[in-house]
Every structure is written in C-alpha cells, then in structure tokens.
Amino acid sequence: MKFSSKVADLFCESQERRRFNAALENKYDRLYRLAYAWSHHPAMAQDLVQETMLKALEKRKDLSNLEHLDAWLSKIMRNQFLDNMRFNRRWEWAEESEIDQHFSVDCSESEMIKKQSQDAFYQAMAKLPFDQREVIVLADLQGFSYQEISDITSTPIGTVMSRISRGREKLRSLLQHSDVQRDKVVPLRRN
Q1: CB–CB of 45/36 below 8 Å?
Q2: Distance (Å, whole) CA 179 – CA 16
C-alpha cells in the first residue's frame, strides 16, 4: 500500500512539473519582450529571460496557482534585472555616438523613416528613469493592471499610477521634441 501511494505521488508531481514546464515555455516570448523593453539590448534580454526561467524552475513550489504565472515571472525578472543593474552598471550610460553607430544601417528610404521612428521611441524610453520605464512597460506593453504592477514592483498602487502618469507625460514630451528635429530632414524623393 505504501509503495503504490509513493508512486502515485511521484506521478502527480511529474504531471504537475510537466504542466509547469509547458506553461513556462509558453511565456518565453512575452518575457523576452519585457526584458528587451527594459534593457534595450538583445543579448542582455536573452540572458535575463534565461536567468528568470532558471529561478522560476528552482522556486516553482512558491507559485500556488498557474493563473498568476505572468505576474510571478515578471516579479522574478524585475528582481533579477535590478540585481544585474546593481552588479553591472556599465551599460546604463551610453554615448549618443555609440547608439547612432549601433542603429545606422543601409536601407531604403521608407525603412529608414520607420527605423528612425522606432529609434526615437526607444531613445525616449531609454531616457525615462527606470521606475517610470518599468511601470509603463508593464502596463502598456505587457497589459498588467495597476494592482498587478503594484504587486510585481512591491510599490503602493498610488505610486504606480503616479509613475505611469509622469512617465507617459515625459515620454510624450520627449517624442514631441524628436518630431521638431524631424522637420530638418530633406526627403530623398520629389513629390
């Protein structure tokens, strides 16, 4: 009798582990988008997602319900990202010339205009303080509610709402400023 109950327990744990692993695997793309939005660097984003996945596998017993997996993984990723920032601050500040060299590519005019718009947005996002960038990404790109963001960041909900409001306003201002400079661009085609 005891032997069969142990086998049943192992089977249940194995089934539960497989469900957890499958759910975790389905979250990879979402986690990568979040990591990239925070770090603005593909290799760092991939590393962050892998570190998050490893921590999630190590601490899967801490998750009581798979319905909360997105918020739980985002919280793990946030903590890992902050740890990485504290450990390695060299990429926080980049010279504009380095950014320009990174984003300059030979392409057609329409692709270049599209890329410039994306670059302006990414550069504006990168200029936001991390606390504002973090909550904007969680709210606007990942679709978390203010309460979920409050739980993920361990921040009062009023502070979350304030950061989102101030961050969106600053982002709007930065993007409007980049539009002013776009007036100086000479089109390559004649109308």
Answers
A1: yes
A2: 52
* pLDDT score of 138: 92
Q: Check residue 169 and give left, alpha or beta (phi > 0: left; psi -120 to 50: alpha).
A: alpha
- By residue count, the chain amounts to 191
Taking residues 173-184, what's their average pLDDT? 67
Q: Give pLDDT tens digits for 82-103.
A: 888 777 665 555 555 655 555 4
User: Which pLDDT does position 95 carry in this prediction?
Assistant: 54
SS3 of 27-57: the string is CHHHHHHHHHHHHCCHHHHHHHHHHHHHHHH
Distance between CA atoms of residues 164 and 155, nearest Å: 12
Q: How many CA atoms lie within 13 A of 114 on its CB side?
A: 5
- Residue 27 to residues 16, 142, 163: CA-CA distances in angstroms? 17, 12, 26
Residue written as token pair 């969680």:
138
Architecture of domain 3-184: Orthogonal Bundle (1.10)
The whole-angstrom separation of Cα 22 and Cα 33 is 19
Q: Is the pTM of this model over 0.90?
A: no
